[in-house]
Amino acid sequence: MIELSHVSKRFDTEIAVDDISLRVPKGKFCALVGTSGCGKSTTLRMINRLIEHSGGEIILDGQAIEAYDPVKLRRRIGYVIQHTGLFPHWRVARNIGLVPRLLKWPAAEVQARVEELMGLLGLPVGEFGHKYPHQLSGGQAQRVGVARALAADPDILLMDEPFGALDPITREKLQDELAKLQARMQKTVLFVTHDMDEALKLADHLVVMRDGRIVQQGTPLALLQHPADPFVESLLGGLERGLKQAALTRVRDHMTSMGPTLPAQSRIPADFSLRQALSMMLRDHSDRLTVVDQHDVPIGELTLRRIIKEAQFDRGSSRE
Amino acid sequence: MSLLDALPTPRIRWEGQHPNVVLISLSLVMLCAFWTVDVVSLAPNRIVMGTGYGALEAFGWPGVVLITLLLSSIGLFACQPTLPHYRALLTVVVGLMALMPVGLIASGLLLIDPELPQARLGIGTAYWVVLFVLMLCLVEIRLRLNLTRLWPTLLLTGVALVWWLCAALWLDNLALVQEFRARDRQFLTAVGQHIRLVSIAVGVSVVLGLLLAMLMRRYARLQKGAFTLLNFLQTIPSLALFGLLLAPLAWLAAKVPFLAQLGVSGIGTTPALIALIAYSLLPMVRNTYIALEEVSPDTLEAAKGMGMRAGQRFWQVRLPLALPVLLEGVRITTVQAIGLTAVAALIGAGGLGTFIFQGLGQAAMDMVLLGALPILIMALVVDAGLGALAEALRPGGH
Ligand SMILES: Nc1ncnc2c1ncn2[C@@H]1O[C@H](COP(=O)(O)OP(=O)(O)OP(=O)(O)O)[C@@H](O)[C@H]1O
Ligand SMILES: [Mg+2]
User: What is the residue range of the signal peptide feature (chain A) (predicted)?
Assistant: First the structure.
């Protein structure tokens, strides 16, 4: 568990982080969103003591961070850096095995762990283990960065814009993979991004920052429904807010019992989002879709009327 | 001094069929020099200035035609620079370099009267020009063919072997060879002294440079002062610095007998080494400092964030990443020291400079060459060797 209470950081005269309080319970995914320079990275780096905070209290697993030896503290926190920060003179496998080696794991165990992680992140050892970072694509380098952070199996993961420099398609793919990994591993994650869609997609808890302060925090849905001020609202996409909300809701939760079965192109899988459903309706000029399960068997019906009537969506059942 | 760097190093992309103007002009320069300037000179004895001979007299018609053809073929191949043509160019250029001593043998046979075995054959201006321009061609071809520095080094080593073989076996009349024969012991000693002076000076400044650079990183205030001092040292003419050291060191040696026993004196090795180290420190410290500072902050932040201790960060991340730039500093320092050590001969430190200054004193140009050529070769070898090493040590072997 990560707990920040009334934490501040001033550099000389400038206040980078101003009296912020937030809590990430064990196994939860918290996203920190805000415009450039609002203090997101600073917040993250105070937690692993790359920067010492100048006020307030940071508590990790019930203990103030000052009580930990900084080096040991960092070795138990996974850290993914804004621009990957891979060591250019080390091969991929050696990069990933860094923290286990620092922790003096036996060589064979390090090796096994590296192979396990590379498999987990879709980087075949035979193909990538011996490459140098400059031989990787941006997406592959980010995967290596994530693998390195996970290497010693830390409970806490700090991620600073891990997908910031990627094209939208690779970005989305890595987001999906991260969501899957998180569902399996249940790490306590603090994730920095300035991409609101990314935050909405991944986070259990969303924190919006501006000029070093927290403007609003809560579940993604709560923020979408009740943005605290115009800044948060515009960050959440202004007029697109309705669609973003729809994107967080699964078709399954709004379908009704079977109506007439429609032709194949008007079918939608139950775990798609309402946003995708709306898009299909717009495309096909229709106001209803047939909902199918993973074997393409019809199990219900979704109508436009119902979507609009029940616009008071609640959280999709697929992720709780 | 660093001939292999005479042209810019950035790799040039393959550009299709535009004529390579550089090689064409170089080819014309060589043809001009070959046809108009003296190729060799001949002197009856050591002191008398020789008489110059043009290509026709030195090589006869067949030789002139052959060499003219080879030199023009460089320009012709360069008009349509395709990959096979560049390969052909490489062969021609290296072949010409290897043919040059054979030319000297031929001109010796043609020009020297068998009655006058004392005659001395001197290498003429055209020879030097062509040799120098051929090296420039080699650099250009290396860039076009995207070869590493290792290739020209290997090829030039081969060429040097051919020269050496010819000189040892058939070029008895070459003035340079005679100068060498007359003092081969002395020559080897001088080479040894030269290498020793350079290695000690460079070795000490590498260690001192690393220490100073590390101190400067810790104490920012030291940085400005040290760089000012080192920059200032670098502006003193080398001879003046040797002279400046003479009086205080002589005084020290007179006052402290222990130091005198250690070999400290106003002239000789001690002041030479002090001056050499003083000059070597600036390029060494500057490159080491820049190399260490230039390492990407993201990488270092990562190292810290992953939980590496300060020592681990320095030895495992900062230093290895700084190594190529650092070696560049060693390369520059060494090449500079090889040249400067020649001046050290003036204060009795020995080395190849001895021949240069003795030769100048006796107006015997071939003796000057006997000192200058090995210095040039040493500089080239160090330049290429350390350059190749730095290239090989690029992060990720790239
Ligand atoms: N080491 C430092 N010294 C002085 N000021 C700093 C330092 N690090 C950060 N700052 C300042 O603190 C503020 C917050 O910086 P921070 O890096 O946390 O922003 P960020 O939200 O991560 O921005 P971005 O999205 O661009 O990464 C900025 O105004 C920055 O100038
Ligand atoms: Mg940042």
Answer: none
Which of B306, B319, B321 is most worth mutating to test chain A (most A CB atoms within 10 A of its CB)? B306
Is the predicted ipTM greater than 0.85, yes or no? Answer: no
For residue B315, give how far its alpha carbon lies from the nearest alpha carbon of chain A (Å): 13
pLDDT tens digits in sequence order for chain A, 320 residues long: 999 999 999 998 889 999 999 999 999 999 999 988 899 999 999 999 999 999 999 999 889 999 999 999 999 999 998 888 899 999 999 999 999 999 999 999 999 999 999 988 888 989 999 999 999 998 899 999 999 999 999 999 999 999 887 888 888 888 998 998 899 989 999 999 988 889 988 999 999 999 999 999 999 888 888 888 898 888 888 778 888 888 888 888 888 877 677 777 788 888 888 888 888 888 888 888 888 888 888 888 888 888 887 665 444 433 33
Tokens standing for B248?
A: 């205080």
Longest dimension (CA), chain A: 69
CATH no. for B184-393: 1.10.3720.10
Q: Residue A255 is part of which domain span?
A: 249-317
How many whole angstroms from its chain centre is CA A121? 16
Same domain for A153 and A31: yes
- Check if A104 contacts B (Cβ < 8 Å): no
In chain A, the number of structural domains is 2
CATH code: domain of residue A256:
3.10.580.10
Residues of chain A contacting residue B303, judged by C-beta atoms under 8 Å apart = 87
Residue type, B150: L
Of A198, A218, A238, the domain-final residue: A238
The CATH number for A130's domain is 3.40.50.300
Q: Of B95, B358, B345, which is closest to residue B198 (Cα–Cα)?
A: B345
Cα gap B58→B125, rounded to integer Å: 13
Residue B135: name the closest of B168, B164, B100 by CA.
Answer: B100
Judge whether A243 lies within some domain: no
A54-73 residues touching B, CB cutoff 8 A: 71-73
pTM: 0.75
Which residues of A are less than 8 Å from B305 in CB distance? 45, 48, 50, 74, 79, 81, 85
Q: Are strands A29-34 and A188-193 parallel, antiparallel or unpaired?
A: parallel
A146 touches chain B (CB under 8 A): no
